[in-house]
Write a structure and sequence with these properties.
single chain, mainly alpha, Rossmann fold, Serine Threonine Protein Phosphatase 5, Tetratricopeptide repeat, 4 domains, five-stranded parallel beta sheet, 32 helices, 8 strands, 58% helix
């Protein structure tokens, strides 16, 4: 056998002295894992070892080993075989790699089977003729049960950046998203200001704000969206650090002190296997939280100002914000850090807690002084009230409501500087932490200073809101309620951000034109009196009339104030008022024909208030042309078709919506109704049932299902459904 091609492998063995000739079985008594370990130690493959064995037979010339050779081999084996450390490493790597390969195969199988969801904040458009990325409505499933999941404002960005464009990414929570209406968010106002300042530049806006999230989620959103090459990243965050995922006051992902464990759990949740593992926990959450309940879900999540968990909150916020800034700066983007502003003057604390060490005797003295002060305040004797509140303050200075009442009295007697200090204290000591406190705001300022980079810019929006307010304390002149900015507040924030970046943009695009006034901005965005009326009613009904607002001191006074505002806008709630609004929208659309928000708002106005269904159908059709991946647009078009008794077209629109997002209860209900009108009762029952599953608190879903079941002759099942509806009603 010619072994010359392998001489470089065999020669080292020929040069070794193994004693008298022996068989290969004597020289290499290896098998199984021993042979593999020997090959690995010598740098050989198993095939190479087999060649060496064959060569050893040829060189030996003997059929049997001698005992001396066996002893010599054993000595060689002890000297040259794999050591204990190498064998341990081999066994450990096998133990690790085996399960890892199995997990990778399971992950691949789950993906091929269509299990799980894409965890990135953007996904490719489903439209065949559109090369763009759109918001992922399932992104927040990593942090919330699907029935409670929150979503981005819809956006669409080209996969390939067009020349001459400037892309802006806004990160934050509901205040950044623009609640109660994203059409008038500070992101939209900022885009309007910059478009007017640089008319030859195309500004793309990605508003990635989302309700109920915090910096843990914002960091994950940033990792996905910064890959899309933003030129400017705006971060306006801090209000949800306690109540958001992984915070000590959350009802979602449990509180965790170690940041690396939080990020590891998020990384696991991005995998299909991790998503399947979360199903059991999600089911438990959905039993407790049947549907989205807004701020009312957190009313029992009180955190004392002395709670050590707050130190963890501040640390996590700073680290997440720092890592987000570094991520954006490395991509070449400018970063604007904003200090989160809040309503302190006209938003009393949601809950107050006494200091833990307060003994019963001091508590009784505190209560006596507090009651006397409250009565004096009610009688308009503010100086006397201040004296009694000061006495109570000596006994316990951690009760948030006490500071707020004292601040109001101080303001009423003109001592505004002292009043400001107590307004701030009232916010910082609030046991229901829906507002960023002073330390979180200071963390933003400190981070901007410590990063000390030309790419990091501080826009002190908290200070700007204070300076724009009447007595230096932000109130309902800039806010709807606790943190959500009204149009004036959104303009102040947007203007502050614009002023912070204009000098940098001048270097790139040349000198800018004057900044638009607030009136000019909202004329371009078509904010009408009818819209102001609608928004005021929404705030009143969806926020102020529900807990925790109903538990605030001075609640009745706040409601009366808002009732007066709604009454003042009542003239807009008329056919003439809505007709005037339509004219304003038409003009705005003529100037910005590709602004899908304008078409959406006009379509809603025509359908809900003027009953112009044909006109609404045209507007929603335009929205779908601009945003074909919006399941809400498909649903809105289907609703118009339903009202026009075009049930087949309505069903088609609802099916298209569910292909994009199949857990939306309203769409399932409407599709069930369309099938019911078409006479397809089994399909109607199926979608009514799915609607009730995804939103079990909505009783009309149960009654509609029971009605269809009776029509199908399934009386017993219908009775069971109605019984379940009665149980839900009692809850």
């Amino acid at each position: 056998m010619d072994l010359s091609p392998f001489s470089d492998i065999v020669s080292p063995f020929n040069q070794r002295s193994y004693g008298s000739p022996a068989t290969a079985a004597t020289i290499f008594p290896l098998s199984g894992w021993q042979l593999k370990a020997f090959c690995w130690q010598q740098g050989l493959t198993v095939a190479h070892a087999q060649i060496v064995l064959i060569h050893s037979f040829a060189m030996a010339g003997s059929k049997g080993p001698t005992s001396g050779n066996r002893v010599r081999w054993r000595g060689y084996q002890r000297q040259s075989g794999p050591g204990p450390a190498r064998l341990w490493l081999f066994r450990a790597s096998t133990a690790v790699l085996g399960p890892l390969v199995a997990l990778l195969l399971m992950e691949l199988a789950c993906m091929l089977a269509g299990l799980g969801f894409d965890p990135d904040p953007v996904i490719p458009s489903c439209a065949k003729d559109r090369d763009c990325l759109v918001d992922n409505p399932r992104f927040s499933w990593q942090f919330f049960p699907p029935a409670l999941a929150r979503q981005f404002e819809p956006f669409s960005i080209p996969s390939r950046r067009p020349g001459g464009s400037f892309r802006i990414l806004v990160l934050g929570e509901s205040a950044a998203q623009g609640v109660p209406d994203g059409a008038y968010s500070f992101a939209r106002v900022l885009q309007t200001i910059l478009e007017a300042a640089y008319p030859d530049v195309s500004f793309e806006m990605i508003n990635a704000g989302m309700t109920a999230i915090n910096s843990h989620v914002i960091y994950q959103i940033a990792k996905g969206l910064i890959r899309q090459g933003p030129d400017l990243v705006v971060i306006y965050a801090g209000h949800n650090e306690v109540i958001g995922p992984f915070g000590p006051g959350t009802v979602f992902a449990p509180f965790q002190r170690r940041l690396w464990l939080i990020r590891a759990s998020i990384a696991l949740g991005r995998t299909r296997i991790g998503q399947l593992m979360r199903l059991y926990r999600i089911r438990d959450q959905q039993r407790l939280l049947k549907s989205w309940g807004g701020m009312e879900m957190f009313t029992s999540s009180r955190i004392s100002p002395t709670d050590p968990a707050l130190a963890t909150v501040y640390s996590h916020f700073y680290t997440n914000l720092r890592d987000t800034c570094k991520l954006a700066a490395r991509s070449g983007a400018m970063v604007v850090l904003c200090t989160p502003a809040s309503n302190m003057r006209d938003c009393p604390p949601f809950a107050s807690m006494h200091r833990p060490s307060l003994d019963p005797k001091d508590l009784a003295a505190w209560q006596q002084a507090f009651d006397k002060a409250a009565q004096a305040e009610a009688d308009g004797r503010y100086e006397l009230a201040i004296q009694f509140y000061a006495q109570a303050l000596e006994k316990d200075d951690q009760y948030a409501q006490l500071h707020y009442r004292l601040a109001r009295c101080l303001e009423n007697v003109g001592r505004t500087d002292q009043a400001r200090d107590h307004y701030i204290a009232a916010r910082d000591l609030d046991a229901l932490r829906f507002r960023a406190d002073s330390r979180l705001c200071q963390s933003v300022r400190t981070l901007a200073k410590e990063l000390n980079s030309d790419a990091i810019i501080l826009a002190d929006t908290d200070l700007a809101c204070s300076q724009a307010s009447t007595v230096g304390v932000p109130g309902d002149d800039l806010f709807y309620e606790h943190v959500h900015l009204n149009p004036s507040g959104n303009y102040i924030v947007a203007k502050t951000i614009a002023e912070a970046v204009l000098s940098r943009l001048d270097d790139r695009f040349g000198s800018h034109k004057p900044i638009l006034t607030e009136q000019d901005c909202y004329r371009r965005l078509a904010l009408t009196c009818a819209d102001r009326y609608i928004l005021a009613k929404r705030i009143y009904e969806e926020f102020l009339c529900k807990p925790p607002f109903t538990d605030q001191p001075y609640h009745q006074q706040i409601l009366q104030l808002w009732q007066g505002r709604i009454k003042a806008l009542q003239d807009a709630n008329s056919p003439e008022g809505f007709a005037d609004s339509v004219a304003i929208y038409r003009q705005a659309i003529a100037d910005r024909p590709n602004d899908w928000y304008l078409h959406w708002k006009l379509g809603t106005l025509l359908a809900d208030h003027l009953h112009d269904l044909a006109g609404a159908e045209d507007e929603f059709g335009t929205v779908l042309r601009l945003m074909p991946d919006s399941y809400l647009a498909h649903t809105a078009l289907g609703q118009v078709c339903l009202r026009m008794d075009r049930f087949q077209e309505a069903a088609c629109a609802f099916r298209n919506a569910l292909q994009l997002y199949d857990v939306h209860p309203t769409t399932h209900f409407l599709l069930g109704y369309a099938y019911q009108r078409l006479g397809d009762l089994p399909k109607a029952a199926r979608h009514y049932r799915l609607a009730a599953y995804w939103q079990p608190t909505e009783l009309v879903y149960y009654t509609s299902l029971a009605r269809v079941l009776r029509q199908m002759g399934k009386t017993r099942q219908a009775d069971e459904v109605l019984k379940k509806a009665a149980e839900q009603g009692r809850r």
